[in-house]
Amino acid sequence: MKIVLDANIFISSFFWGGNPRKVLERVIAGIDVLFITKEILDEIYDVIRRPKFHTNEDEINYFINSIDEIANKIAPKRRIKNGSRDKTDNKYIECGITANADYIISGDIHLLELKGYKKIRIITAKNYLEIIK
Questions:
Q1: How far is CA 102 from the centre of its chain?
Q2: 7/110 Cα distance (integer angstroms)
Q3: What's the pLDDT tens digit per position in 25-69?
Q4: What is the pLDDT of residues 74-118, one digit of tens each?
């Protein structure tokens, strides 16, 4: 499957494991193909640096470099205006459109309430793992 993960999934995978980590492990194993844009990577970087995560620069660089190694970096071909209620989340939809992704996997309520965008389904990590069983 072609997938896009939101920052929430990456951060949850890194700190807590669970279903987000299982999804990321499928990418590492070559089962799923992950797509990411510079804007998504920048958001992950900004979020992981927040004081509440207590990460040092080495941990941050390791995490970002790991994502950089496993993801296919693309540039969005077009911008959308009518996507998520939170317009900052549109970068995930734009990435999904450009990648012709099957799924956007998210923990963000604004994305999840859409349930999909055109042919792309937007679901939680748990739902994704249930579907692909």
A1: 13
A2: 13
A3: 999 999 999 999 999 999 999 999 999 999 999 999 999 999 999
A4: 999 988 988 888 888 999 999 999 999 999 999 999 999 999 999
75 vs 115: CA distance, rounded Å: 23
Q: What pLDDT is recorded for position 64?
A: 93
Fold exhibited by the domain 2-131: Rossmann fold (3.40.50)
Residue 133 has pLDDT above 90, yes or no: no
User: Cβ atoms within 10 A of the Cβ of 106, count?
Assistant: 24
Yes or no: say if 106 and 9 are a contact pair by the CB < 8 Å rule. Answer: yes
CA atoms 11, 17, 18, 23: torsion sign: positive
Residue 3 near residue 103, CB atoms below 8 Å: yes
The string over 80-92, giving b where at least 16 C-beta atoms fall within 10 Å of a residue's C-beta and e elsewhere, is eeebbeeeebbbb
Where exactly are the structural domains of the chain?
2-131
The answer to whether residues 92 and 10 touch, using CB atoms and an 8 Å cutoff, is: no
